[in-house]
Input
Amino acid sequence: MRTRRIPVAAPVFVGNEKQYVNDCLETTWISSAGKYIQSFEQKFAEFCNTKHAIAVMNGTVALHLSLIALGIGAGDEVIIPSLTYVATANCVAYVGATPVFVDSEPQTWNIDPEKIEQAITARTKAIIAVHLYGHPADMRAIMKIAERHNLYVIEDAAEAHGASVEGRSVGSIGHIAAFSFFGNKIITTGEGGMIVTNNDQLAQKMRQLKGQGVDPVRRYWFPMIGYNYRMTNIQAALGLAQLEKVDWHLAQRRRIAQTYRQYLKDYDDICLQPELPGYVNSYWMTSLVLGDNLPDRDRVMQQLAEQGIETRPFFYPMHVLPMYANLANGKKFPIADRVSMRGMNLPSFASLTEEDIHYVCACLVKVLGY
Output
């Protein structure tokens, strides 16, 4: 039994985090107003090459506000990958629309554009493209489909800060994009999120909606039903400091993924998430799928845990969850099912050392019986 524990994720602070947070405390600007919110929004918009960034309380509400701003509601359908975090489906349900699940493609495990085309009906209003575990979805194909059918595209970029497709930053390709800054993300505010868009009207509407719907010029006048989805100045201070070091954070994730790949390159049945030509994977997590002839995934994870190594399973597909199972309508999702049951995430936080990675790989290879 190893005494040291290697977590699957941990925040890393190497910049001005303490200085900026202490400034909030000393000036008493701790709630949803203050200089750090505006600075964080401006810098994040620059990072994504978008006109607007709207800071919110988490990635889930970023998706929720995106759907509301696009006017999606009861009677509408939104196409999403079945293999995603539950927030993607939940936000569609929040607005009274119906999530329509499609299968993944086998290489990156992202939503399969061919399956999107087959799922479109007269009720379809939008596609949510999830950039799973840091590798972008096929946005060129998805945007072409959306243009043909006059659909909105929302990028669920919660896991993909700094990823890109053919030189375009994720977040700048669809009509709106949602990011998460949860504690295990590439950069973090503890809890927090960001919406980015190039559309002036959508940005204005989402800013109003996140602040209870208050009129932008008439204080305490509320012409619409809104939400309290605001980020605090303390969170934004933390986020700004993290964003100032985002190149370092991204470089560490890439270093970690490349080191894992080097140590595991001789084992063909361990399928690491790739980085396809023309794409930049942000490597939020170093993710892999075990070949069918290898031991049970959950047993492998348990044996690694006994060696002090924390891992995490892939998400359950939406079509197997109790509240969404009836929406599958008899469709099959063979890729999502297999990847979900055979996939796992390895420790991937920025301060992970090569010694740690070597230990993880050595234990993994031993547990797998090589």
Remarks:
- The chain has two domains: 17-244, 246-367.
- The radius of gyration is 21 Å.
- The first helix runs from residue 17 to 27.
- The chain has a mean pLDDT of 97.
